[in-house]
Amino acid sequence: MSVIISDEWLQAAQMSETELRLELAIWLYQQGRLTLALASRLAGLTRLQFQRALSERGIPIHYTPDDLAEDLTNLQEVDLP
User: Best exposed site among 26, 49, 63, 76 by fewest CB in 10 Å?
Assistant: First the structure.
């Protein structure tokens, strides 16, 4: 599904498309509707950039036990010298 936001609406909100995508991604993330990874993709940012945007707004990062387990699995798969 695609959503089209007219330039008129963006001008009325005094936002660029990039800003709107970021604000929407942050709102959906705060509501628990999107994961960090999906919200980052919606915003068009890397996860680190999105985390920085959350931090700048004082929004905590949701970090669940499942996230920790996934991170630990990923670390075990990394081939360190």
Answer: 76
Nearest to 29 by CA among 45, 10, 7, 12: 45
Torsion of CA 6, 7, 13, 17, to 10 degrees: 90
Token pair, residue 36, equals 């960090």
Give the SS3 label for residue 13. helix
The Cα 26–Cα 79 span in angstroms is 34
Query: Residues 60-74, buried b or exposed e (16+ Cβ, 10 A)?
Result: eeeeeeeeeeeeeee
- Predicted confidence (pLDDT) per residue in 37-80, tens digit: 899 999 999 989 999 999 999 999 987 787 788 778 878 887 76
